[in-house]
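Re: that chain you flagged

S.,

Sorry for the slow reply, it's been a week of failed gels. I finally had a moment to sit down with the sequence you sent. For the record, here it is as I used it:
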Amino acid sequence: MTQVLLTNDDGLDAVGLRAVREALAPVADVTVVAPADDRSGCARQYSRQFGVTETPDGWAVDGTPTDCVHFGRAALDTAFDLVVAGCNDGPNVGAHRLGQSGTVAAAVQAGFLGLPGVAVSVFDPPTGVRGFDPDDYREAGRLARFLVDRIAETGLPPGVDFLNCNVPATASDPPLRVTEPVHDFDVRLQTADANPDTETADGATAYRLFDAFYDPLVPDNGVPQTDPPGTDRGAIRREVVSVSPLSVGYQTRAPTETATLCDGYADGPAVAATDTDRPDEADGETTDTN
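Prediction finished late last night. Pasting the structure tokens below so you have them in one place:
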């Protein structure tokens, strides 16, 4: 049976984690390794040392989702086939958000370790986030089970390291769309003049930043809803399951043009990296092309 490492960023006691574990039980052996408490928004932070407690519900890690993946891979005597993260309370969409989410970070870290990753989040179309009931995770659990079963059979497509999935809590049998993260992002600034409670004790001007990314999803707030269906935010606005196939590599772009940009920093022209500049995997040597 498929060996799954299940984690999240909402903590070991989260209802969404239990829902996914129960959904996966018929198709996988599930090992839960999750933060001992809520670590939402911790991104890919990791700890060099952390405590771990074995509980009836799984391994409780005094650390981040990344720590959980590291511990599961390195310390447990299980050859995991893939990592599932979730179910997160609230959506994880948008390129900027993916770098902040602890849920997505666990799937990313799986990819760096050579394991397929699946991040699953649930959202409420009118509000994004609310108090979710156990039944609200049913569709997310069904998707996680389907993907684990399919990935175990075929693997992820070439070049794909993990899937970022967002599932509506209110829809029954929603359609699914393969999406890409939207790159839109903005912030709203509020000062103490607008909210006196934000003034600091020493009298300094206090500022509060609000993520304006979800403004287009709020009904009747005057913000245009222009996302095409092919984006993850556009999909969740339409109450559609969003699955974004993503890679973890930081891929080089425009090396020749960047070498031109850097000309003049050192004696001689800047040289763009080519395949012959990179270490030979067979002998560990590097060819010097300068």
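What I noticed first: Residues 253-290 form one domain.

Talk soon,
D.
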